[in-house]
Amino acid sequence: MKIINRVSEFSKVTELVFDDSRNFISEIATELTRCFGGLANLNQNLFHYRSPPSLSMSSYSENDAEALRRKRILSSKLYFDVSPSKVPLIYSESYDISFLGIEKLHPFDSSKWGRICRFLVSFGILDKESIVEPLEASKDDLLVVHTELYLNSLKGSSKVAMIVEVPPVALIPNCLVQQKVLFPFKKQVGGTVLAAKLAKERGWAINVGGGFHHCSAEKGGGFCVYADISLCIHFAFVQLNISRVMIIDLDAHQGNGHEMDFAYDSRVYILDMYNPGIYPLDYEARNYINQQVEVKSGTLTEEYLQKLDEALEVAGRRFNPELVIYNAGTDILQGDPLGRLEISPEGIALRDEKVFRFAREKNIPIVMLTSGGYMKSSARVIADSIINLSNKCLIEAGGAPKSA
């Protein structure tokens, strides 16, 4: 992902935010009123807020840090029992990010998650009442992976603006940034963590969101604020008694966040198939990929799928996982301005089918995350792929799909 850096585009940003300043301020005031129930004590609440002290992982020995991490995981509420009547497909309306139109200044479609579910419901593959809603990840949940220093840095709107690559976010009071930007991400983190539990119980789970693979314990970037993949795996280690996890990252971009987090952890095997000529160009993190497959700009569907077949065959020989985390970005889609690959919609459905077959044939629970995708058409492509997985009996979504 790239920050909007051309003068013409910046002028559009400026026009959007400042053209009608009084209206903009009115909108802000309305949201502040919702936050605090009135503006009388805004100064006290906004500028003099101090979070309660909490334990930092860095202040402990390695053994103490692991004990603290385990305690946090065991006391978390993110794992909860889900009724058998529910389908292991996780989504909340809170996932979608919308605030004064500013979200449109980033090429990522921050409303795609809701549109995926609406497609699935309209096609009859899914009943709205059968969708699982996750809980928001708390600060203690996030501290399982993230440092106190990093989480505190998110109290600065400018820091969040840098991570989500939308400069005007720096101008918004942080209480609103917390509510309108960070809260949706925390809900998606909760969804990714819960997905592992459901996958272990049902064989598969799909979080219609998540896949923030550019974020590591101490650093966010590329529209990724929290390291949901790393959190999901650490929860699985403790709560599910799992000791071997395979990450299959097929987003067009390198998954440098989880690669840094599990750099020296032999319990995690990383297969990353990515375009080496685009963001994040993290050469250090590439040293920690167990199996990297480079697909250069312009790669077509047939070549891509052939490389994937070969990669999965190698991965299956090298590692025997107890859980697969599948980062299924659709930024490989032909025409995607950031992925720069040329994979057809049918090719993406075949890609997902191959990964699910890989897991099903080995009887390995699989978690799918939707990750990147920068065109409006991505939502329909993802929905069609999920329908295909259901038609091929690789998932049991519980509905008889209508003609799409």
Automatic annotation (TrEMBL):
Enzyme Commission number(s) of this protein: 3.5.1.98
Subcellular location: Nucleus
Domain Histone deacetylase, chain residue ranges per copy: 106-387
Keywords: Chromatin regulator, Hydrolase, Nucleus, Repressor, Transcription, Transcription regulation
GO terms for MF: histone deacetylase activity, hydrolytic mechanism
Biological process according to GO: epigenetic regulation of gene expression
Cofactor: Zn(2+)
PANTHER family: HISTONE DEACETYLASE 11 (PTHR10625:SF23), HISTONE DEACETYLASE HDAC1-RELATED (PTHR10625)
Described purpose of this protein according to its UniProt entry: Responsible for the deacetylation of lysine residues on the N-terminal part of the core histones (H2A, H2B, H3 and H4). Histone deacetylation gives a tag for epigenetic repression and plays an important role in transcriptional regulation, cell cycle progression and developmental events. Histone deacetylases act via the formation of large multiprotein complexes.
Protein name: histone deacetylase
